[in-house]
Write a structure and sequence with these properties.
- With 787 residues, the chain is of the alpha+beta class.
- Among the domains are: 114 residues, Winged helix-like DNA-binding domain superfamily/Winged helix DNA-binding domain (Arc Repressor Mutant, subunit A), CATH 1.10.10; 131 residues; 137 residues, 3-Layer(aba) Sandwich (Rossmann fold).
- Helix content is 64%, strand content 8%.
- It is built from 34 helices and 13 strands.
- A 5-stranded antiparallel beta sheet has the order 4-3-2-1-8.
- Strand 6 and strand 7 form a beta hairpin.
- Helix 8 runs antiparallel to helix 9 and helix 30 runs parallel beside helix 32.
- The longest helix has 44 residues.
- The protein is elongated and about 120 Å long.
């Protein structure tokens, strides 16, 4: 135990140095001035360290009066705790024992020459450990500044606020732009908070420095100032970069909002909007499903042609439950009027009772009956359209007609009508090659019965386009072109026909003409989703991906129950390398259209590229079991190729070619499998030649398609036609492309033509755009030195 005299010369409590003669306590390198009474109280506790000292003893020793106010003792203890950084609830230095007194928990140690001369911030690293000294010195600088603690507290608070904002803002209908504006405001506030905190802290430290006689204090203060200035500079730079990024994102949102403001939906009912509910068949009546549904679908097209009021598309009805009442349907579908139909049959005679319901009230605004024979069903369709047109002219007197004739003609021929309805039903239920072939035969029957059947001709064009996308057969595209030209020559004014013509131009790379056709369709019906999706694909192909995504999302919002909307948006995300987002949309499409081979195949591809290899292979195998789809065989082959199982890969590629012999990509894949096997490289050359011939033939469809040109360049390089490959590659405008497959092909071209650095650059671009690095690492076509 040290004497009072020895304690007056100074002592240590752990890493704290007490200098009573100078009136200071040194804590973590900082000198804190302490009042005389508080220091005397600390001396008394140190004299009896680790023993209980009663309040009366302390009052008598320090204040000289046992009857002195105990509040003086409490204030002195609080001052000591504040200086020492001690806690009453969890003490390290001074323990309070209620009604008994106080106890100093640490023993008092005398000062030595070493710890008297060496500043505390240097003594924290003992035994000459230079690295530890620097580390503790730096930590001391951080701890001594409020700037860093305030920064951490502010960032944690902002992070918590962002979590709350992500939940509450959507509930309050605050848009994503609103969230970005809020974050921008927080970014602006952050440097202001740092600056104010730093200035206030600087003033306080200047005051303490003026009161200090520690020779090391000035050096410590300068070091801390430099550290804080560097921290502020880095913080302000980071804030400026983030704020600029947020500003650009907000401006992009504003531009996209201007582009779609005319079509942006809200939660209120669309003025004068009409939904045609599925027609019902009366008890005891019989009629084929495709005819009952076909009457309703053609009525939708007829009402669309009027261009007098918004007509809800058929596919948007898929999200509505037909057992809901009129008010519930109105809220879900956001329409003001509902059209209901009840069909009854007796022998060859049909009778259709049609009604117009005011959705909000359930009041019947108009109804009538139409009777015709079964063979006169086209006439029934035309009469149905005429009567509803007149009914809505009375209900909506301020509407204007887009059709001066006031007549709608689909066909007068029952055989054509019947075949067309069967084709539509076939396409609605299935999407494989066999179904497309069946629909093609039915549409040809319809056109044979009525060559002027424009909608059937446009439908035939769409079937051939779908078959071309699957098979890459130029013959299919030529058949599509002929059917579309025939439909266009009939001068019909329907959104359906205009949108299909837009598809033809889009697939052939005539984007300006395609956009005109889509705009024409949207003038006829602003809610025609096929035109919105086609427009989105044109925007994406021309480099405007932000506007394209807005159009895809609008199509989904208008028809949330239509599986194809999710497929197209998923395909957009897939091409951009967002595989998980693509998989979510494909999964939604699979829910809406179970058993679809097209959906399952796309979903498996998204899983494969997001690293879910087992799920992908199982899904492709399921597709193969359901229907022998060439693309699924090819994808299974690719999975085995990356796994090094070349025998299985070759088997599946050959299976794919037996179903789609004109697909140049599958021929290329098969050639790759042979080329990577040293003893079979000669077998690969004629396959590359075959793939090149088929690919060059597709230039007749679109001579400027970047993906096609990049693959042709790659095939020319495989055949060592490097000059031709370089010229073809020059035609690809890589600057605005986001398709990672394109850069993969150009990388193979470069490697084959001994341009290693260029190939490495293309590989890195492919990876940046989403091509999985693990697949690059497993690809024997890629030389991995230098990657």
């Amino acid at each position: 135990m040290l004497s009072i005299e020895a304690l007056h010369n100074g002592f240590c409590l752990g890493e704290v140095t007490v200098l009573p003669a100078q009136g200071f306590v040194v804590v973590r390198g900082e000198h804190h001035h302490v009042s005389a009474k508080a220091l005397e109280l600390l001396l008394q506790l140190a004299h009896q360290a680790q023993s209980i000292v009663s309040q009366q003893q302390l009052l008598s020793a320090v204040w000289g009066d046992v009857a002195a106010a105990k509040v003086n003792l409490s204030h002195a203890i609080s001052e000591l705790r504040h200086v020492l950084g001690d806690s009453k609830s969890c003490p390290v230095f001074i323990q309070t024992l209620p009604r008994r007194g106080y106890r100093l928990l640490l023993p008092a140690r005398p000062l030595t020459a070493a710890n008297t001369l060496v500043p505390l911030i240097e003594r924290r690293g003992r035994a000459g450990a230079v690295n530890a000294k620097h580390r503790f010195w730096l930590i001391s600088l951080f701890r001594g500044s409020r700037l860093f603690s305030v920064s951490v507290a502010f960032l944690v608070s902002v992070w918590l606020f962002i979590q709350v904002m992500a939940i509450t803002f959507p509930l309050m209908n605050i848009s994503a732009t609103g969230m970005k504006l809020t974050l921008l405001l927080l970014l602006i506030v952050f440097p202001l908070v740092l600056l104010i905190t730093w200035i206030n802290d600087l003033r306080e430290r200047k005051k303490r420095l003026a009161q200090s006689d520690n020779p090391d204090k000035q050096r410590y203060w300068r070091r801390q100032l430099l550290l804080e200035l560097g921290f502020l500079l880095l913080s302000f730079t980071a804030v400026a970069v983030l704020a600029h990024s947020l500003k650009m994102a907000i401006e992009a949102d504003a531009d996209a909002g201007k582009a779609s403001v005319a079509a942006a939906p809200d939660s209120a009912a669309i003025p004068n909007a009409v939904a045609v509910l599925p027609f019902q068949l009366s008890a005891g009546s019989q009629l084929e499903d495709y005819l009952l549904e076909g009457i309703r679908q053609e009525l939708l097209y007829a009402l669309t042609e009027l261009n007098q009021f918004p007509v809800l598309a058929d596919r948007a009805m898929q999200s509505a439950a037909m057992h809901e009442n009129h008010q519930q349907l109105a809220a879900r579908l956001r329409v003001e009027f509902l059209v209901e139909g009840l069909l009854s049959s007796k022998g060859d005679q049909l009778q259709l009772e049609i009604s117009v319901i005011e959705a909000a009230t359930g009041m019947r605004r108009w109804s009538n009956r139409i009777a015709r024979s079964r063979q006169a069903m086209p006439a029934l369709q035309q009469e149905l359209h005429r009567q509803l047109q007149n009914a809505f002219a009375l209900i909506l007197p301020h509407s204007s007609s887009g059709n001066p004739d006031g007549e709608y003609r689909i066909t007068d021929n029952f055989a054509a009508f019947d075949a067309y309805m069967q084709a539509q039903q076939q396409l609605k239920k299935f999407d494989d090659i066999a179904s497309l072939d069946k629909a093609e035969q039915l549409l040809l029957q319809a056109l044979q019965a009525d060559p002027d059947f424009a909608v059937a001709s446009a439908g035939l064009c769409k079937v051939h386009l779908d078959k071309y996308v699957v098979s890459r057969s130029v013959d299919e595209f030529e058949l599509a072109r002929q059917a579309c030209q025939h439909a266009a020559g009939l001068n019909v004014n329907q959104a359906q026909v205009a949108a299909i013509l837009g598809d033809l131009y889009r697939i052939s790379g005539q984007y300006e003409e395609a956009m005109k056709r889509y705009e024409q369709a949207l003038l006829l019906n602003p809610r025609w989703v096929d035109a919105l999706s086609g427009k989105a694909q044109v925007l994406n192909a021309t480099g405007n991906s932000i506007a394209a995504e807005q159009q895809f999302k609008l199509a989904i919002e208008l028809e949330p129950g239509y599986w194809q909307n999710y497929m197209l948006y998923g395909g957009f995300l897939y091409e951009a390398g967002h595989f998980k987002g693509a998989a979510r949309n494909f999964e939604r499409a699979a829910q809406l259209k179970p058993g679809s081979t097209d959906v399952l195949n796309s979903l498996a591809a998204a899983w494969f590229f997001s690293g879910q290899f087992t799920e992908a292979i199982n899904a492709w195998q399921q597709v193969v079991d359901l229907s022998p789809v060439a693309q699924s065989y090819s994808n299974l082959g690719t999975a085995h190729y990356f796994n090094g199982d070349y025998a299985n890969a070759e088997h599946h590629y050959r299976q794919a070619l037996s179903n789609s012999a004109d697909d140049y990509t599958i021929w290329t894949n098969l050639a790759d499998v042979l080329d990577v096997q040293t003893d079979r490289q000669q077998e690969a050359l004629p396959l590359y030649q075959k793939a090149l011939q088929l690919a060059e033939r597709n230039l007749l469809v679109d001579a400027h398609a970047p993906a096609l040109l990049s693959q042709i360049s790659r095939l020319q390089a495989e055949l060592q036609l490097c000059e031709m490959a370089a010229k073809t590659a020059e035609k690809v405008e890589v600057g605005r492309q986001t398709d990672f497959y394109l850069f993969y092909d150009l990388a193979i071209t470069s490697f084959n033509c001994q341009q290693h650095e260029k190939g490495v650059a293309y590989v890195r671009q492919a990876i940046d755009l989403g091509y999985p690095a693990e697949l690059i690492a497993a690809d024997p076509k890629i030389p991995h030195s230098g990657l």
